[in-house]
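Hi there,

I know you've been waiting on this one. I reran it after we fixed the sequence typo, so this is the corrected version. Both the input and the resulting structure follow.
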Amino acid sequence: MNVRTITVAEVLDPGNQPERTCIGCRKKGLRSELLRLVAEGSGSSAVLVDERRRMAGRGAWLHPSESCLALAVKRRAFGRALNGATGTAAVERRIMQGTNVAAAPVAATPTVQPESGSEI
């Protein structure tokens, strides 16, 4: 039986991560850099963002940028990638939240002291 050991450097190497193609700009990127999108079931035409990348069904991938979103809408890529799904409100909301979070300053979080007796 052949057993191969894997080093930490091999695991963390970005070359070992799967690549996906953005439906907006059509450029390949690491799966961790892109948003996974799925069509909402039950006959709805809404597109949902699959944050955990676990939802059932066919997925499409999009860079979390306004420019890629605009290109995907212009090219009508959502309908082709997700079998007729066109409602992109949830995707737009998620991308706008991401850009606002990046622009907002990070507030210092206060440290919380453990209660007496809970130290180990």
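Quick highlight: The radius of gyration is 20 Å.

Best,
R. S.
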